[in-house]
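Consortium newsletter contribution from the modelling node. Members have asked for a concrete example of what our holo predictions look like. Here is one, prepared for the manganese (II) ion complex that several groups have been discussing at recent meetings.
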Amino acid sequence: MAFVIGPHPVASVAVAGSGDRFAVRRIFCVGRNYAAHAREMGKDPDREPPFFFTKPADAVVDDGEAIAYPPLTQNLHHEAELVIAIGTDGRDIDESDALDHVWGYGIGNDLTRRDLQSAARDQGRPWDMSKGFDRSAVIGPLHPVSRSGHVSKGSIRLSVNGTLRQDGDLSDMIWAVPEIISVLSRSVTLKAGDLIMTGTPAGVGPLVPGDVCVVSIEGLGEIATTITGRESA
Ligand code: MN
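And here is the predicted structure:
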């Protein structure tokens, strides 16, 4: 048997303090996981069950890379997020066992074409093109649990050109890491290599060409992304 196309390159993210890479299988994202952000998006932050959307694995972008302003939007937004990296397969995972499935944690920026998302929401259409576009998932180096332990609290911040835009704490997540893993694993079988972006605190806002966007999480360092002009065809 031969492939007529492919096999394709394996999407991957960096591992902190190492030359190794973590091969990415899928990227799941939690919608509305901080009450203040739910309110700024015009939604009631009641504790409804978490919901998920996805990005393609090859949307990943490393720390320090430049991203061309994407097509079809006039309102590209940043979203600072904690990223969970799954290291052990599992389905129907109990909350009490959930952390055993975590390989590590990283810092993410869930780039969003907010104007397309708002239009999709108003029309009851899917979020794919507002969330899962090319280079929409900035994921910094992953910190293995074996070295850094589990992450459940501490500041999560995002600044643009040195001005603080998002300033939250991981302990304010409506759904904590074990709950997210447990709920998601009842919907799909989680596999090693899956990443979960856990939602963003309040303060999301626009990025424009020339901006330098820095996201930091206590204990995980910081990541930087530069936005450049639109690519010409
Ligand atoms: Mn998000």
